[in-house]
Structure formats: C-alpha cells, structure tokens
Amino acid sequence: MMRIGLFLLTNIAVLIVFSIVFGVLSSVFGLGSVHGSNGLNYVSLAVMCLVYGMVGSIISLFLSKWMAKKSTGTLVIKSPKNGTEQWLVDTIAKQAKTVGIGMPEVGIFDNPQPNAFATGWNKNNALVAVSTGLLHTMTAEEVEAVLAHEIGHVANGDMVTLALIQGVVNAFVMFFARIIGNFVDRAIFKNESDSPGIAYFVTSIVMDILLGILASAIVMWFSRLREYRADEMGARLAGRDNMIAALNALRPAQSHPDQMPESMKAFAISSGQSQGFSIASLFRSHPTLDDRIASLQKLPH
C-alpha cells in the first residue's frame, strides 16, 4: 500500500515537473503549447515526453556508479590489502583486456548472500562489485565465472542499452497516457476550454500507472535477455561448466529474502526470484536459474 501511495505522489510530482520543464522549453525553443483550442499539440507533446523520458534515464545512467556504491555500501579496491583483493583485481583486469574494454573499478560490498553486479555509464568507466557472501561461499573458479558474467554486461553495453530502452518506454507511456487523458476530458467530460480539466490530470495519472506496469514487462523482458548474453560471456571467459557451477551455487541464497537494494536488483547476478511461471514472472529482471542453466547446457564445451 505504501508503494502505491508513493507511486501516486511521484506521478503528481512528475506532472508538475512536466509543466515547468516544458514551459521553459516552449519559451526557449518556441515549441508551442501542448494544449490548445483544437486539443493536444501532438508534436509538442511528443517532444516533451521524449525529452523528459530520456533525460531522466540518462541522468540515472550517469549517476549509476555513485548510486550503486551508496546503496550497497561498496568499497572500491584502490590498493589491494590482501591476496583475495589482489586476485579480484588481477582477474578482472585479465578479463577486461580479453574483451577489449577499459579496466573497471573493482569493489566489495558487505552482504552475506552470494551476489555481484556491474554498472557504469560506458564500457570504459564501469564498476564491478562482489559481495562478501560470494567470496566466502564460492570456489575460485565459480567466482571467476561470476566476474566474467559481470564483465559480459559491461562489454555488451547493457547498462547504456537498458537506460535507452527505459527512456523510450517512459516517453511512450507519458505520450499515450496524456492522449487518453485528453480524450476522456473532451469526449466524455465535454471540456471545451483551451485548458485541460481535472479529468485530464486524473486520467493521465491513472494511465501513467497502468501503462507503466505494462511497459515494465517490456523492460524486464530485455533485462532477462541480457542475463542470457552475460551468462554466455561468462562461459566463454571462464568455462561453461564453471558458469553452470556458479549459477547452481546461487540456489541456496534464493531460499532467503534478497538483501540487494531494489534499485540494484536488475544489475545483480541473482535477483532472488522464485522458480516457475506466473504473471509475476513477466516482471522479473532475471530468468530462473533452471532456464539459465538449460541455455548454457546448449553451448559447446
């Protein structure tokens, strides 16, 4: 219930920001008003939605490393203090060189569950971090496979692509939500003034929520697809059997509540999701471990 309330408040805030941002853009670039005597100005509305949708995603992308460090408490290894830290840095350096990307920052975060993530705004300015639980419960070969999986995310440009997809999806949601809001306001509530009525704002907020839920399924589909690709990279760099063993080593952790912050679950190697298909499975950021292992088993040794 709290999440729904926060979501509603967020959408109201978004509408206010829309008005301010687009008012400025209209004055500076002469885009014209979104609303007029003939209804919506679709060109202006499309520009507004695209700008706001993409700007939000791009800002999030550029802040991703900072947010990841703060939300997980990741400590970056600036100078290795022990053999484990030195091995982590050396292993990631070797893998990064193999796939032709810049050396990522390497970090460790305190979490008893085995997990890891990669983030960053481009391939040569990334962060790869592992949990203390992963280092304590997995073998060196399994950890190497997990690191290779995360390097795969970086090399494939998954963070950038996910941000762009999220931005485009956000723009479509905002665009169609306001078209539907305008239709309800004018066709059903018979508002004939140049300014939108309360029905426009209420309907737009409701449709932001409903269309946003549907759009999330599209974003999560891509997120699942990129996990398969990162697994394949892990298998290529560290060996197929080691990648499968690493995924199997994640099974015990999935019987416990996931301690990763919500904002980081899509970037982690394990999201703690349950097995099997349900409506909720459409909104998973990760495929099930069984599906991921089955996909790996089709690869040649």
End-to-end separation in angstroms reads 49 Å
β-sheet strand percentage:
5-15%
Count the beta strands: 6
In the predicted model, the low-confidence regions spanning at least 5 consecutive residues are: 1-12
Based on secondary structure, the structural category is: alpha+beta
Whole-angstrom Rg: 22 Å
**Order of the strands making up the biggest sheet:** 3-4-6-5
The largest sheet, given as strand count, sense and whether it forms a barrel, is: 4 strands, mixed
Average pLDDT number: 83
In percent, how helical is the residue content?
55-70%
The coarse overall form would be elongated
Number of helices: 10
Secondary-structure element order, as H and E?
A: HEEHHEHEEEHHHHHH
Name its key features.
four-stranded mixed sheet; two-stranded antiparallel ribbon; single chain; 301 residues; alpha+beta; disordered N terminus
Structure description:
This protein has 301 residues and is α+β, with helices and mostly antiparallel strands. 62% of the residues lie in helices and 7% in strands. The chain is built from ten helices and six strands. The chain has helices at 2-29, 42-62, 64-72, 83-99, 132-137, 140-155, 158-188, 198-238, 240-249, 289-297, and strands at residues 35-36, 39-40, 75-76, 105-109, 116-120, 126-131. The strands form two sheets. It has a four-stranded mixed beta sheet with strand order 3-4-6-5, with helices on both faces. Helix 1 (2-29) packs across helix 8 (198-238) and helix 2 (42-62) packs antiparallel against helix 7 (158-188). The longest helix is centred in the C-terminal third of the chain and has 41 residues, at 198-238. The termini are far apart. The model is unreliable at 1-12 (pLDDT under 50).
